[in-house]
Amino acid sequence: MLKDLILQYIEHGDFTLHSGKKSDTYYNIKKLCMDYPNVVADELCYHFETLEKVYNVTAVGGPATGGALLALIIKMRKPYLKSFFTKDGKLFGTLDKDDNIIIIDDVYTTGDSINECRKIIKDYNVVIDLVIVNRNYPYSIYGVHSIINI
Asked: How far is CA 9 from CA 5, 13, 30, 36, 68, in A?
């Protein structure tokens, strides 16, 4: 169901992505989250729970541009998790060195947002990245779990 909904939230035009690259397509995941919060939360948590069991996850977070909202959605369903976001080279939230962390983001195109986040939390244990839409499939880096591959 989520994939069908995402197709309705594709915008066409002239967009500049966070990486600075140009695109004629934009996946408006934030608007999708606002319009269908329970559908997004259900699907997101379903995938998260699978990864949580495998990696013994204790924290979730991501870049402020797309991951912060998704981390909040997961945190609301799983209040025992630590959460964080990164912005302008800084970490917002509290993590411990022994936390097993999932970085989450809305759309993976170049990987720049996730890589920036990884640099900021480089001293912590990131176990895997989770994205809703992977625009770069199958060429994305190892360790990216995608809900939908485009």
From this structure: 7, 13, 9, 11, 19
